Structures
1.
Amino acid sequence: MSNQHNGISCINGTFTPLHEAKIPISDRGFLFGHSIFETLLVKGDKIISWESHFERMKLSCESSFIKIPDEKLLKDWCQHCAEINYKLSDPKPLKVQLRIIITGGNSFDLSIKRTNEILPNPNVIIICRNAVGPSQEQYMNGISLKCLPDLRAQGLIDIKSCSYLYNLMCLEIAKKEGYNDALFYNNLNLITESTTANFIWFDEKSNVYSASFKGSCLAGTTLSKLIQGMQKTNLHFAWKELNLDNLAEAIGCGIISSIRGIVPVNKIDTTHFDIHSQKKLFEKLNKVLEDQME
């Protein structure tokens, strides 16, 4: 394996290059998928939206029976990871991505072994790499999405779980058919989210909509930031259902996530969208999001 710098890892406080990182084979995240994660953006020396991500991490840990790490220690580890990565990078990155994985600790047994009703210590894994994302061409001309049924476990929708096998399968099915990503719809034919991002759409009056976070898609920290920012402008946001039958109600749409920001969508299945006619709206939304991330 090449020793060329490709990122930094921190495992329970021990920092190593990514190609040297190791976890115990008894790790419950590895054995059972008993793990949650968050992906954060770092710009300069600032971790963006730390409070929102940590709050969601706590909720995910509580729901998953995983002991929550100390916030200050975790943030210090993340900051140090980003600093080491920046020093070793050439050229210096404009953006860095952190992936924090919290697992249920070490055990070969499925059941959790508590001591005096206290959950076992988790394994804390931090991966820091220079941010990668869509190409400039995709930001300019958009991406395509293939609709696929959301057959993920309903109980995991509100948890940022590392159990991404079904997401991976759908992504590969979509790519095999020439699309960039998959877009999920539930048993009511309601569109929810893509494999790795929230989904937003617009009507002819430039109103912005999304499926409700409540039981249909993950509560996105970046989408929440966008909504907060829009409340300070003349742009309108509302929770609204979009299904496979009334897709034509959408004049435009996009996906939104922490690392990628807002990426326009030019096609869903066989429905095409003129993203160039929505250019000004995308610019406004990106400016709102950028201001919220400062």
2.
Amino acid sequence: MELLLLGLVGALAWKLCKLWRTPHDAPLRSVTLCLLCATLSYPIAMPGGATGVDTVAGHGATKLVQNVLLLVSMYFLMCFYLYSAADEEASRRRANKEAVAVVAVVVVITLAAVSVPHEVFAGSFSTADMTVPQIAVFYGGAGCYLTYVLGIAARWTRTYARMSRRPHATGLWMAAVGLGAMAVACAIRAVIVAVRWADIEVPQRLMAAVAFLLVASILLFTAGITYSGVRARISSSKLWLQHRRDYRRLAALWELLAEAFPDNVLPPASSSAHDRRRARGVHRRYHRRIVEIRDGLVAISPYLLVDGTGIPAPDVDSDELAARLRRASARVKEGAPVPRRAVPLAMTLGSDRAADVKQLIAVSDALVTDRATPLTIKEAPC
């Protein structure tokens, strides 16, 4: 139960963050409300929550509130698919029809629950006396509605999974399997209600297995609807760490070029506090450093030409290029005139951007290894 609640809370928190950014997204709002109702239903069913609800609303109210929340969560799940599959007006009309259906089911199970003494209504699904018609209607009505919604949702999710690509398809298939398993579990529980209504005993192991299937399928569904978002966040975190690491490793090369050509250091775009905070982001600082290094290499490239030939320096290893950059930087600081025009040296370091950055990092590492004197230049404030 704790693991299930933790999964629901995590999924709900993720969807609430997305809904805060896009509050007018109807499908997102529906799935968030679905998770909210499902999450609220579980603390109410726990001993502390059950005691509090029963104290305020009377004995047996906990079970009724929990089931109503589950039914409402299924309604919002249906709305999610409706708003995703059709235009807004058609979705609203179908959602209104489905609202009538869920309200009718809620009214039926509420009347069934309040029409029997709370002693009869007490207990769990496995211990309830299904020979009492109201109890059978309560569990059977809720189970049939859950089976209906979950079955339709599983079919729609499977359709979307076939149309999607990874990683979205993977998450949708997980959600489809979870929904299908939940529908099967609810259908089995409805059959168990009918069997027990006929006063036929059902093995406890079977009911325990169905309860386990229901919990496992909910966890799988929760994992499915958050899979693509979690995976995207993990990929984003990996990229953030890589840019942070590369930014630091490029420091030696940037310092050498910035000391030789301080005018190439880009000034802050704005003096506002908001822009300064954004400029301090890892990705912005990383790309800014790449741009400043490229400008610095273009500016220093004339000093790397082979003396007297007019031919750019040949392709050399990182250590040799680092040594030449040091000598060229020293000539710049000594005020030596520019021997020739600039050449696109930075473009010869790699066949694409990733290879270029890799080569720049190798040169920067070589500068750190073979650094003769410490550099004191400081980066301009972001």
